[in-house]
Amino acid sequence: MPVPDPFHGVSFAGKKGCSVSAPVGSRGYRGWHGPPAFLPGHADGPPPERKPVPSSPESDQVVFVERTLRKAGLNPRHYRRAPLVRRIPACLRALKVDSLAAAMREMESSPDRLLVGLNSLLIGTTAFFRDRQVFDELQRHVLPELLGRVDRPRVWSAACSDGAELYSMAMMFDRLGAEPPVFLGTDCRASAIARAREGLYPISATAEMPMEFVRNHVRLSGNTATVSPEIRERVSWAKADLLTQSIDSHWDLILCRNLAIYLAPEAMDRLWKKLSAAIRPGGYLIVGRAEKPRLEDFSCIAPCIHQKAPGSIA
Ligand SMILES: C[S@@+](CC[C@H](N)C(=O)[O-])C[C@H]1O[C@@H](n2cnc3c(N)ncnc32)[C@H](O)[C@@H]1O
């Protein structure tokens, strides 16, 4: 099956806007912020004296979060600080260090260590059939409606984390006996995409999964659950930054759940606009429980499920 490309031929690696934009200062983490010695535009003499910006634990934490995002190629302006700052203790634990400076040094020491830090900072919580009522509604009403008018729907899980959400969709389509739709999952974290490809999960990720799907599509062994090869081979994965890369249109169903809650208001609005424009008339956008996008041409037909007006322009 050809790999669908939602990003219009934009290469995923080394894309402009995805590179490390703040060089890592040789003085290390603590020396990085603070006022410059001279402000620009004062060629005739020293600028008026400015008080140094005092460093505080709070500002250190914010700087740490911003630097980590930048190092991972993400733009910190797109994210709300508070939820990420709350993840710092988890990040230090994952890196087995006890200070921000040590964590920064660790993450600068190798790409693998950077991934460890980033994975604990960017919240990747997910599970099969997470928010089960939403999946029940999709199975009862949305998928049959979609299959009644589209031969091979295109389904995209944007910000898919390690893929349990998209595999859940693939299992539901299979149950309806449909020709396998086009399935794509993307996330900004390479390690999440690698795990999605493997289809290997802790058994706890199946807690909300209906027993029928466990029986038909998952092999349980010890503490792990492995998605069957038949389901795995229907699904394609790619690493991509949803906020900076342009996206293809003509999707029949996009799931973008539990990313927008971490975004700054402007980035959130742009994300919803981008995704809603990428959905075909009559298609669906599925969002997280705490997310309430205001979308032109869409109506909310059930909790978390928004449908684009059939007569709207694609
Ligand atoms: C809480 S998880 C949501 C997973 C799944 N959609 C769910 O609701 O179960 C949020 C995901 O958004 C991803 N993410 C954060 N910023 C992103 C970006 N700019 N582009 C793509 N994915 C991003 C994170 O890596 C994380 O895996």
CATH fold annotation of the largest domain: Rossmann fold
Number of domains as seen in the coordinates: 2
Named CATH architecture of the largest domain? 3-Layer(aba) Sandwich
Question: Which segments are poorly predicted (pLDDT under 50) over 5 or more consecutive residues?
Answer: 5-47
Order of helices and strands: HHHHHHEHEHEHEEHEEHEEE
Q: C-alpha Rg, in Å?
A: 22 Å
Question: CATH H level of the largest domain: which superfamily?
Answer: Vaccinia Virus protein VP39
Estimated helix fraction: 25-40%
CATH class of the largest domain: Alpha Beta
Mean pLDDT, to the nearest integer, reads: 84
Bound molecules: S-adenosylmethionine
Strand content: 15-25%
Number of DSSP E strands:
10
Let me know the largest β-sheet: 7 strands, mixed
Structural class: alpha/beta
N→C terminal distance: 25 Å
Name the overall outline: globular
Number of helices: 11
Strand order of the largest sheet: 6-2-1-7-8-10-9
Structural account:
This protein has 314 residues and is α/β, with parallel strands linked by helices. The protein has 2 domains: 57-121, no CATH class; 132-308, Rossmann fold. The protein is 36% helix and 16% strand. The chain contains 11 helices and 10 strands. The protein has helices at 57-71, 81-85, 88-95, 100-109, 111-121, 132-149, 164-175, 190-198, 211-217, 229-232, 265-277, and strands at residues 154-158, 182-187, 200-202, 218-221, 224-227, 235-239, 251-256, 279-287, 298-302, 305-308. The strands form 2 sheets. A 7-stranded mixed β-sheet has the order 6-2-1-7-8-10-9. Strands 3-5-4 form a 3-stranded antiparallel β-sheet. S-adenosylmethionine (SAM) is lined by residues 74, 122-126, 130, 159-161, 165, 187-189, 192, 241-243, 257-259, 288.
